[in-house]
Structures are given as structure tokens and as C-alpha cells.
Amino acid sequence: MSLTLWSAADVVAQIDTFDTVIDARSEGEYALDHLPGAVNWPTLNDEERKLIGTLYKQVNQFEAKKRGAALAARNIAGHIEREVIEKPKDWKPLAYCWRGGKRSGSLSLILDQIGFRVALLEGGYKVFRAAMLQDIPQRVQPLHFQVICGTTGSGKTRLLHALAHAGAQVLDLEALASHRSSVLGAIPGQPQPTQKHFDSLIWDALRKLDPSRPVYVESESKKVGNVAIPTSLVEQMRNSPCLDLSLPITERVALLLEDYDFFVTDPTHFCERLEALTEIRGKATVSAWKELVVNGGVETVVHDLLTQHYDPVYLQSMARNFSQYAHARALEPRDRSVGAMQELAGALVQAPLHASVMSGAG
User: Is 97 a catalytic residue?
Assistant: First the structure.
């Protein structure tokens, strides 16, 4: 037999050694979170799990096991016919389920009998997640962050994308969170990951970073939308050197109207998001902003949001939370354009330790 049990710690350290990572749980469990890169081959799907659970409670364990075995065998046969027939003999998969190993064990046993070198994650997803969370601080500790600061609309995300394009290492937390990290930052039609999946996405990103090179990251609060950044990562970022990106207010308003174009095309959505500011800014102010939005005054509302709400809150937060913000290096692109951000990114990559970087001087 070539079936081997792998500990969660070993999988955390060597997950890339497997040709395929197979999640044998149901599609609903998989959607909540899964190991990075895993494919979903349910031994029992959501409806089947519900059926077997009902039999277990209302009839007895033996009847539930018989029906479950029949469903599992049928599903495993389908996975083999669809996914395994073309696999070479040296294919090396890792399989896991929730905790007990019955679902992944059934699949693994058949793959083992075929002759594949099968690894089974001992303790399943639950134990892996615990090991992964313990590993995150170890991944964070040796990294050297450069925190891109700047008031809302200064182009932090554009610069981060330009840095990635220029070959720099970046950690794009907003992309991982599917959120633009403000009260108005929800992206229409794009739900955020669960907290568990966000943790997994961050761990997967961290483990691919080279500690010998700087890592650029935006200055985020503890949460990006509804998901929280791991504490060890927040603390490391807040104690790291800062880069202070700035643009004139007119450029910032224009940038936000470009990046949040759905606020212009869908004023109803913009008004709904503004409601979230009622407690902070007051009902009269928010009502006035909503009236402006409906009457085509989105630009005025964005200007007011920046000067009256976002800028004061952001500057207070940065001074309070980021220990090196007072000594941040100044970054002044010539304008908000992608081209200007690419020029600035190129200068940073070529001379990352200069005391000041100005892309548009002259």
C-alpha cells in the first residue's frame, strides 16, 4: 500500500509537493474555505449529507451508514471517471475532509488500490486550519514591509498594482478581501470571502514572499470590509517604514470617480452606501449628499466626503497607529494616471532606499 498519513504541520510546510489537493467535503463546506489550490470532489454533496444526517437521527446509525456508503461509492466512481482516468502512475494527490477522515479515507483507499501514491491529511481541514493560523506569525516575522500610506484617492492601489507590474513584491489585502477598505468600499456583485477563507488566502500569499526583498502593502485598518487581518500582520505593518503618497484634491476626486464609476452610473447604490455614514455625519448632512447625488452632483459629494470625513479620520488614524508615519518618505506622482504610477513604481524598484521619491518633478 502507498497510502500515507500526513500531519497538518507537514502539509503546511510541504503543500506544494502534491500534484493535486483534493477536498472530499461537500460543495458548501468547500465554499466556506479550503486548502489553497484544492479541488472539490465531494464524497457526499450538501443534499446527500443532509439526507444521511436525517437518517442518522431519525432511524439509526447502521441504516445511515449503508445509504451513505452507496452514495459515496457512486460519487467516488464519478470523480475517478471524470478526473483520474488520464492521470499518470506517478500522480501524487493529497486528500482531506473535515476531521474524522471517513469521506477522504474512502476516496483515498480506492485511489491507493489503483496504485497511486496517496497522502491523507490526518485530522482533516480542522487540524490544518489550526496549524496554518499558528504558521502565519512565523511567515510574517522575517518580512520587511514598505507601507504605502496616503489619504483616500491618492492612488495607493494604483501604485501597488504598478509595483507588482514592475516586479516588486506586493501584498494586496484589498484584492484578497474583495473590498476597497472603506465604508463605501463594497464592490457591487463581488461578495467578500469568509473570514476563514480570507485567512487562508493571506497565508497562501505570505508563504510565497521572499524575506530578502521588500514587500509593499497598503496602510489598512484591522479590518478590510467585514474580514479581519491577522493580528501579527497588522502589528508588523504598523511598525514598518512608511511611504506617503499624495495628489492634489482635484486629482483625488477624479481618481475616485474613475475607480468607483458605479457610483456615477448607479446613484441609488451610492445613496444606499451613504446611509452608513448617518450616525457619524448626521442625518441632515447625509440627506443633503444624497440629494446632490440624485441631481448629478456626485463630484461635489466625493469632494466633501474627502475633505470633511475621510481625510481627518485617516490622518488621525495614521498618526495614532503607524509608528513610523511621521518619518514617511514622500511620494509625489505627476498625476493620477497609470503611467505616472508606473514611473513612480519604477523609481522605487530601482532605488528603494532613497529618502524621497518624486516621479513628476519637472
Answer: yes
> CB-hemisphere CA count at 13 Å for 303?
10
Q: Which residues of the chain are under the pLDDT cut of 50? A: 354-362
| Separation of alpha carbons 332 and 347, rounded Å | 12
Find how far residue 27's CA is from the centre of its chain: 20
Quote the CA–CA distance of 278 and 97 in Å, as a whole number. Answer: 45
Grouping H, G, I as helix, E, B as strand and the rest as coil, residue 21 is strand
What is the pLDDT at residue 186?
73
Q: Specify the pLDDT at position 353.
A: 52
For 293-357, give the DSSP string.
Answer: HHTT-HHHHHHHIIIIIIHHHHHHHHHHH-TTGGGPEEE--SSSSHHHHHHHHHHHHH-TT-S-B
Set 97, 149, 242, 271: catalytic member: 97
The structural domains of the chain, ordered by start, are 4-133 (3.40.250.10), 141-350 (3.40.50)
Residue 244 pairs in a beta bridge with 149, 330
Q: How far apart are the first and last CA of the chain?
A: 71
